[in-house]
Amino acid sequence: MKRHIIILLITFLCLPEYLEAQLKYYDAAEFPLYGKATKNTENRYERLPDSLKHVSRKPVWNLSRNSAGLAIRFCSNSTTIAAKWENLNNNLMNHMTPTGTKGLDLYTWVDGAWRFVNSGRPTGKVNQAKIIANMEPVEREYMLYLPLYDGVVSLSIGIDEQASISVPRKAIPVRTKPIVFYGTSILQGGCANRPGMAHTNIISRRLNREIINLGFSGNALLDYEIAEVMSSVDAGVYVLDFVPNASSDQIYEKMEIFYRILRDKHPRTPIIFIEDPVFTHALFDKKIAIEINKKNKAVNSVFKSLKTKGEKNIYMISSEKMLGEDGEATVDGIHFTDLGMMRYADLVCPVIKKVLK
Predict the structure, then answer these.
(1) Which Pfam families match (predicted)?
(2) What is the pLDDT of residues 44-81, one digit of tens each?
(3) Does domain 174-355 have CATH number 3.40.50.1110?
(4) pLDDT tens readout for residues 145-157
(5) I need a labelling partner for 69 at 20 to 30 A (CA). Which of 7, 142, 180, 282 fits?
(6) pLDDT at 142 over 70
(7) pLDDT tens-digit series, residues 338-351
């Protein structure tokens, strides 16, 4: 009896290792990476070219190493999808979930649309997660979103040992004429519960179009080298959502120059400007309310000046109804919850769809 108990105990203890042995891992570098403006980066999962390492302001450079908006595309018939990944910094924030900050998010293509499967929840800097199991062994197209507020040092995808994995068979999202966004912490993804709920990722799924996310938390200050990076992309639309970070003085001083860098290389590409959101706590914080009004007055003044000068294919999106009227769309009065992200997408997506050629 004692011997049987020992055997059962050893079997139980070894079971996780045995089950793990049934999974085979593949380096995600074998599969297409979506959401990058350039391939010339120090690490595959970074967003700005290495040439800007000693050019961009240090905060911008450091934030560019966050993998916001990046996603791996692959195809597999596995009943299980797992992942191993190492984060760059192991970041932790008090107003955003660890899964949104440094986790993964898996979607699959079902009946002509992207459908959430499950998330890979992080436990630290080095992570391993079984994202989904017990599926039918049929071939599916997958999109694996990367962390919003941390970088990725390495990433591998695990499948059943006898299953297959390959590059995607469907050319989705469409990669020609991607949409390029520039903006703030909110645009970078703050504070979505999981990576797929960042509004740029929501819009990408709705339009089935690749989106490049150049959001830099607290640092969308109209740095001209970022405009140069954006202009290097043959975009379908450029979306400029910098007002929450830029001061009214910076808007008057730099907005037109930033715009001209894009326009000089792309004379007919639609360029969309977005006002500062009417943040939910502005109803009570009168200093914030005055600041929002001042900055929106500045961005509209420069926009009207561009129109007066004969500029075409430029659009302004009012933020008046962006967050709804119930005050429930942010986590801290500023950064969007998933509800806020959805409302932003509801407002912005139709405008992009209308002007997208």
Answers:
(1) GxDLY (PF14607), Lipase_GDSL_3 (PF14606)
(2) 999 999 999 999 999 999 999 999 999 999 999 999 99
(3) yes
(4) 999 999 999 999 9
(5) 282
(6) yes
(7) 999 999 999 999 99
Whether pLDDT at 11 is above 60 = no
Distance CA 238, CA 245 (A): 18
Give start and end residues of each alpha helix (H) in the chain.
2-21, 58-64, 98-102, 185-188, 199-207, 224-231, 248-265, 286-308, 338-355
> Rounded to an integer, what distance in angstroms lies between the CA atom of residue 83 and that of residue 99?
14
E-strand ranges in 45-132 read 71-76, 81-87, 104-110, 113-120, 126-132
Residue 83 phi, psi dihedral angles, 5° rounding:
-150, 150
How far is residue 197's CA from residue 41's CA, in Å, rounded to a whole number?
Answer: 25
CA torsion sign, 47 to 51 to 52 to 53? positive
Backbone dihedral angles phi then psi of residue 253, each to the nearest 5 degrees: -80, -40
Give the pLDDT confidence score for residue 87 in this predicted structure.
Answer: 98
What pLDDT is recorded for position 2? 54
At position 199, the amino acid (one-letter code) is H
pLDDT at 357: 76
Instruction: Output the furthest CA–CA distance in the chain (Å, rounded).
Output: 91
What is the domain partition of the chain in residue ranges? 23-166, 174-355
**CATH T-level fold of 23-166:** Jelly Rolls (2.60.120)
**What pLDDT does residue 230 have?**
98
Number of H helices, E strands in the chain: 9, 15
Location of structure tokens 């350039």: 38
